[in-house]
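re: ur question from earlier - yeah i can do the single chain one, its not a big deal. heres the input i used so u can compare w yours
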Amino acid sequence: MSYLKTSSTGPLELTTAGRISGASDVVSRRSALAVVKNLLQLTKPSIMLLVLITGAGALVLEGSMMSKPFQFLVFMIGLYLTGGAANALNQYFEREIDGKMKRTRQRRPLPTGKISAREALFFTLAIGASGVLILGLFFNWLTAVLSLATILFYSLFYTLWLKPHTAQNIVIGGIAGAMAPVGAWTAATGSLAVSPWILFLIIFLWTPPHFWALALCFKDDYRAAGLPMLPLKAGDRETVRQILIYSLLLAAASFLPLFYGAGPLYLGTAAVVNFIFIYRGLQAWRTLHHKEYWTVFKFSLIHLFALFVALIADKYI
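and the output i got, formated as tokens:
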């Protein structure tokens, strides 16, 4: 009997324990991965991809950091951490608003309860402080101060005051989203110049048509959240008219880099994407249809991405 117990029960107990231990490890790894994924979502990775491209465009245009790949990488990390912190703090403050909007309540980690507000705040402060310190210690404190000011402007002034109080929130708030080229330039040179402000102007003028097209698609969400977006205050036709005005200004501004080092590839790309963007805006004006609003929004992403990729590629081709 003793042998039977040893041969059947003993190994069974070991196997069961091993399985339980293995299952626990898998669950633990999955939980850790889920937490990391949800924290990363706070930084809005898709938006940060555009931010990184615009920062890289300024570095390539300036040129001195292209022979220093380590510094280039470190700046990109600092830029992601500071920009991601601004986005994360925005989501922290807007967690109740996000819970009222169909577009965000099932997609963002705070309204879904996948992470707690305390975890989000701790993560945000940690990556924000890390990013500012990286930019200050590896580059210069002008870049660090500009990055800190951008975080505070976007997360406090834009999120807590502009967005709930004025239909021009996107226009003024666009200052924060357009600062990456300026920070990149100061990181490389320690000073300011005209060139990065031209790139800033392009992003600044791109921001209103991009976000107003999105606001036209999700008017009911913004109404439910009580946010005074332009389509709710001025109507669809006036919003599309403003989109067209900014698209024309954007087209004019996008040719300015030709005077500061951009070449023929950039020229061709700017001509094509601006023509399509204005054409899509005119179609939205003609139809006032949700499908056209969504097309304008989607193409706006391609527009900015294509401009800065062409700016970068021009330097190597």
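The CA atoms of residues 283 and 292 lie 7 Å apart. not sure if urs matches, ping me
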